[in-house]
Design a protein that fits this description.
Blueprint lengths: L4 E4 L6 E5 L2 E7 L6 E7 L7 E4 L5 E2 L2 E7 L6 E7 L2 E3 L6 E3 L17 E3 L22 E4 L1 H5 L13 H6 L1 H7 L3 E4 L3 E2 L3 E3 L1 H4 L13 E5 L4 H9 L3 E2 L7 E8 L9 E5 L10 H14 L3 E5 L8 H15 L3 E3 L7 H5 L8 E4 L19 E3 L3 H10 L6 H9 L6 E4 L9 H4 L35 H19 L4 E5 L28 H4 L1 H16 L22 E4 L14 E6 L15 E6 L5 E4 L7 E8 L14 E4 L3 E9 L9
Helix pairs in contact: 9-10, 12-14
C-alpha cells in the first residue's frame, strides 16, 4: 500500500463514515495522551498501518481523522488508546465473532475488529408499515432459537436471518403482523467471570492452547470439580492448563456489546450479515409484518450514544420500533424525539407527566408500556388465587390514551405457556447455579402433577388452562404478545431462565406442531376473531358508560347475576359485555355484541345474561372446556360455564343458525 494521505476529520458523526473516496474515522477518547488508528489488512499483516492521530485533530474528547483513497474492502480497523486496543463502539460491522461460541479474542486483542458497511442495498419500495397498536399482534422471537432445531426444516439456514425468511409464510398464516426480536446486535455470547482471566499465572499464558474452557451448562460435574480444585488443574495426559468455566450468553444481554453492528453469527454467510439482515426485514415488511428490536443498553452508554444508535437502526435497517430498558434510557428524550415520533417504543413505564410536543404520541401513539403487570394478574386469576377478579378485570380493559399497553402472559425470562400449566416450581439445574437462578414467583399451577404425566385428566385440564390463558390474552384490550413456540406447546422442561441454554431446551421444537395442532388452530381462530371484531382492540379505553345513548354501556362487568359483578375476596368468576355499537367504525370490522364469561372456580356456574336489543340472541362462539351437551346449555337468559373455563358468546340475528367454535 502506498503512503497514506490523511487530514483532520470531522468529529461527527462518530464511527467510520464514507465521504466521497475518503473515510472519516471519529472516536471518543477521554483523558487520552496517545490515540492511534490501526488499519489491519484482511490477508497480509505486512500491509497493516498504524496511524497516530495528532493532538490538534482532537475536538473536545473526540479524535477524528480522514484517510484518503483507502481501499476499505481490504481492511478492518481498531484503535490503540494509550496502548490499549479498543474496538470502535460505533463500528457498523464487527469481525472476529463470525463463529458462534468461539472465544479466541480473549487471547488476541486484535482478533476483534471493526469493519465497514458501505455497500448499497436495494430496498425496492419498502416503506414504514406504521400498524396501529390496536391492530398489532406481536410475536417475540429469538432469531437463533426460532429455527435452529432440525425440526424447523430450514436446512443450512437453520438459526439464521435467512431461516426466519423461510418461516414468513408460517407467521402470516398464524396471523402475526409484528415480530419483536431479542438482541440481534453483536453481543458476546461467551460469559466468563473476570476473576478467571485475572488469576495468578494467567499473565504468562497468552495462547488459547494454554486454556481449557468448560461450558457449565453442558458439563456441570467437571465445573464442580474445577471449583473444588482451584483454577489450576493437573491433567494426567496434558500439561498444566487453566480451566475457565463459562456459560453461553444465549439471550444476548450483557457487556461487550457493539450496538451498531448486527450479529454476524446469525447470518448464513457472516461476511454478508448486513445484506442478509436487510433482506429479512424487507421480506417481513413485504409480508405486512413489522420488525421491532429489543435493546438492553448498559449503564455506561450515554444518552447521545443511545439516540445515535436508534437513529442508525431506523434509517439504515428500516426498523419499525424498539424495546428499551428505561433504567438506562431516558424515556423523556425518546418520547420527544421528532425523528422517531412515528417509531414504536416499548418500555417498562413512561414519563407522561411532562408536556409532550406536537411530534409525539398524541398525533400517533408510538409509546407502549411493556411490563409484567398483565402477566402477574392474569396468571394469578388463571390459577384461581383469591381476590384476583378485580385486578384481572382492570387488566383486560386497560388501554390508556397517552400510550399503548403490551399484554403478555409469558416472556423469555420465565416459564413457557406449556410449562406454566405443568410446573409449580422452576427446574433450572441445567444452568449450573444449583437452581438458585431465575424467579421463584412463577404464579403457575401444574394441575396436579409436576412435569410430564400420562394421566389423561391432568393432560386435558392443562390444555384447557392453555386455552383459558390464550383467551385472556387475545381478547383483552391492549396489544397482545405471544412468545415464540407457545402457539404449539413449546416446553423448556421447567427451566424458567434459559439464558445459557443454547440447545434443545431453548430451541423451539417444530415437531410439537403435530401433537399440539389443536392449540395452534385455537390461536389462529382467536387472532382472527380479534382482527374481525371491532370490540376487541379499540384505539381508546372503554369508559364503562353509555355516553352515546346506545342502550347499554360500551363495556360492562357482570357476575353470575347480570349487572352485579362480584369483586369480593373469594370470587373467581365474572362476565364482561362489549356493546357492538361502540366497536371500531372501520369498514373491515364487524360490530357484534360479545359476552365473555370467566369462571376460574373449580365448580360450574350459571351466568345470567344481559338482554340484547330486539331481534338478536346470544350464541356460543368459543368454549374453552371440552365440548359436550352438558356444558353447552344456553338459552337467551343464562349460560352454563364449566369449572375453570371461559365461554364467549356473540350476538346473532334470531333467525341465524347456531355456529359453535370450541
Amino acid at each position: 500500500m502506498n503512503q497514506l494521505r490523511f487530514r483532520k476529520g470531522t468529529p461527527l458523526p462518530l464511527g467510520a463514515t464514507k465521504e466521497n473516496e475518503s473515510i472519516n474515522f471519529s472516536i471518543v477518547a477521554q483523558n487520552c495522551e496517545v490515540c492511534k488508528l490501526v488499519l489491519l489488512h484482511k490477508k497480509n499483516n505486512k500491509k497493516n498501518q498504524y496511524v497516530p492521530i495528532p493532538a490538534d485533530y482532537r475536538t473536545g474528547n473526540v479524535y477524528s481523522i480522514i484517510i484518503e483513497n483507502l481501499p476499505y474492502e481490504e481492511y478492518e480497523y481498531v484503535y490503540e488508546i494509550d496502548g490499549q486496543v479498543i474496538v470502535d463502539p460505533y463500528a457498523k460491522v464487527i469481525t472476529g465473532r463470525e463463529k458462534w461460541g468461539k472465544h479466541n479474542h480473549y487471547f488476541d486483542p486484535y482478533s476483534l475488529r471493526g469493519g465497514f458497511a458501505f455497500q448499497a442495498f436495494d430496498w425496492k419500495e419498502d416503506m414504514p408499515l406504521e400498524i396501529p397498536y390496536k391492530d398489532l399482534i406481536i410475536y417475540k422471537m429469538h432469531v437463533r432459537g426460532f429455527t435452529k432445531h432440525t425440526s424447523s426444516k430450514t436446512g443450512k439456514f437453520a438459526g439464521t436471518f435467512r431461516g426466519v425468511v423461510e418461516k414468513i409464510p408460517y407467521l402470516k398464516e398464524l396471523g402475526i403482523n409484528a415480530v419483536l426480536l431479542m438482541p440481534i446486535v453483536e453481543f458476546d455470547e461467551i460469559l466468563i467471570e473476570e476473576n478467571y482471566m485475572r488469576s495468578p499465572g494467567t499473565q504468562d499464558k497468552k495462547e488459547e492452547k494454554d486454556y481449557e474452557f468448560i461450558n457449565i451448562a453442558k458439563d456441570e460435574d467437571t465445573y464442580r470439580e474445577t471449583m473444588l480444585r482451584e483454577v489450576y488443574v493437573r491433567d494426567s495426559k496434558q500439561e498444566d492448563k487453566i480451566r475457565i468455566p463459562y456459560r453461553i450468553n444465549y439471550w444476548g444481554y450483557g457487556k461487550n456489546t457493539y450496538y451498531f453492528a448486527p450479529k454476524a453469527s446469525y447470518a448464513y454467510e457472516p461476511t454478508n450479515v448486513v445484506e442478509e439482515l436487510k433482506t429479512m426485514i424487507r421480506e417481513l415488511h413485504d409480508a405486512g409484518i413489522e420488525v421491532l428490536m429489543e435493546f438492553n443498553f448498559t449503564p455506561d452508554m450515554t444518552q447521545q450514544s443511545i439516540l445515535d444508535c436508534l437513529h442508525y437502526w431506523y434509517f439504515t435497517y428500516h426498523i419499525d420500533g424498539f424495546s428499551v430498558n428505561n433504567n438506562v434510557v431516558s424515556t423523556k428524550i425518546l418520547s420527544s424525539d421528532p425523528v422517531l415520533s412515528r417509531t414504536k417504543f416499548l418500555a417498562t413505564s413512561w414519563e407522561t407527566n411532562h408536556n409532550f410536543t406536537d411530534t409525539n404520541c398524541k398525533s400517533y401513539r408510538n409509546l407502549a408500556e411493556y411490563n409484567d403487570g398483565f402477566l402477574i394478574d392474569a396468571r394469578r386469576y388463571l390459577k384461581s388465587d383469591e381476590e384476583q377478579v378485580n385486578a384481572f378485570a382492570y387488566r383486560i380493559r386497560r388501554n390508556p390514551a397517552d400510550y399503548a399497553v403490551i399484554n403478555y402472559i409469558t416472556n423469555n425470562n420465565g416459564f413457557t405457556l406449556m410449562d406454566l400449566v405443568c410446573y409449580d416450581v422452576k427446574h433450572n439445574y441445567a444452568n449450573g447455579e444449583d437452581n438458585k437462578d431465575g424467579t421463584d414467583y412463577n404464579y403457575s399451577w401444574n394441575c396436579g402433577t409436576e412435569g410430564k404425566t400420562g394421566k389423561k385428566k391432568i393432560k386435558e385440564l392443562r390444555r384447557q388452562q392453555i386455552r383459558n390463558a390464550l383467551v385472556m390474552l387475545l381478547l383483552s384490550q391492549g396489544t397482545p404478545m405471544i412468545m415464540m413456540g407457545d402457539e404449539f406447546g413449546n416446553s423448556q422442561e421447567g427451566n424458567n431462565n434459559a439464558y445459557c441454554q443454547d440447545n434443545a431446551i431453548s430451541w423451539i421444537n417444530w415437531n410439537n406442531r403435530v401433537q399440539n395442532e389443536d392449540i395452534e388452530c385455537f390461536v389462529k381462530e382467536l387472532i382472527s376473531v380479534r382482527k374481525r371484531q371491532g370490540v376487541f382492540g379499540r384505539e381508546n379505553e372503554y369508559r364503562m358508560m353509555d355516553y352515546q345513548s346506545m342502550g347499554c354501556p360500551d363495556m360492562s362487568y357482570h357476575g353470575t347475576k347480570a349487572w352485579y359483578p362480584d369483586f369480593s375476596y373469594y370470587s373467581r368468576m365474572f362476565g364482561v359485555m362489549y356493546c357492538g355499537q361502540y366497536g371500531s367504525k372501520e369498514e373491515n370490522k364487524l360490530n357484534s355484541y360479545f359476552y365473555v364469561a370467566y369462571n376460574m372456580h373449580w365448580e360450574n356456574h350459571e351466568f345470567d345474561l344481559p338482554q340484547l336489543p330486539m331481534g338478536q340472541r346470544w350464541e356460543v362462539y368459543i368454549n374453552t372446556a371440552p365440548t359436550n351437551e352438558k356444558n353447552m346449555r344456553l338459552n337467551n337468559r343464562a349460560v352454563f360455564v364449566a369449572p375453570r373455563s371461559i365461554v364467549v358468546l356473540k350476538s346473532v340475528d334470531r333467525n341465524c343458525e347456531t355456529l359453535l367454535h370450541s
